[in-house]
Amino acid sequence: MLITRRETGTNEEVQITALEDKDLKKLTQSRYFFDWKKAREEGTVYKLSLVEGDDILGLISLIEVSVEKRVEIALLCVSRENKGRNKKYDTIAGCLIAFACRIALEAFGIDACVSLIPKTELKEHYKSKYNMLDGGWQMYLEGKSLKEIIIKHYI
What CATH class is the domain 2-153? Predict the structure, then answer.
């Protein structure tokens, strides 16, 4: 997976791995917005970091809902310096969403679905940037749109 450094336009390779106990010390709410220790109690948390470094650039908490063949994105965030117009890197969130799609596809095959409950102000962003479908209080990816996210951001 690749993310783009905005100031140079160069791509840098990233990896997504499970969040470890030792990482919790690095995760301040001022930089990562949520209580990730609590998130680990409710789902599986993964971190995105550069292959050539250990700085955590983004996090995602996933909950597998097997009976619905769905993976729910419970929390998704990029680090403070990678948010907004002056962010350092592009496509961090896309890589994390694609990772969730990949997990869902591996677990549930062609019936896989990925969903999240967006903040109201982000609903249009998820529709336009990630082709998410509006399911009322949830946004979701399935079928072709799920596969397109994987192809665009994961492969």
Answer: alpha beta
Q: What is the pTM of this model?
A: 0.92
Residue type, 8: T
For 36, phi then psi, to 5°, come to -75, -20
Instruction: Report the greatest alpha carbon distance in the chain.
Output: 45
What whole-number distance in Å separates Cα of residue 50 and Cα of residue 21?
19
What is the DSSP pairing of strand 133-134 with strand 139-142? antiparallel
Handedness of CA 77, 79, 85, 90 (dihedral sign): negative
CA distance 46 to 37: 12
**How many other C-beta atoms can be found within 10 angstroms of the C-beta atom of residue 40?**
16
Which helix (H) or strand (E) segment holds residue 59: the answer is strand 56-65
* Spatial contact of 5 and 88, defined as CB atoms under 8 Å apart: yes
The residues that bridge with 140 in the sheet, in sequence order, are 115, 133
The domains of the chain are located at 2-153
pLDDT in tens, 1-29: 999 999 999 999 999 999 998 888 888 77
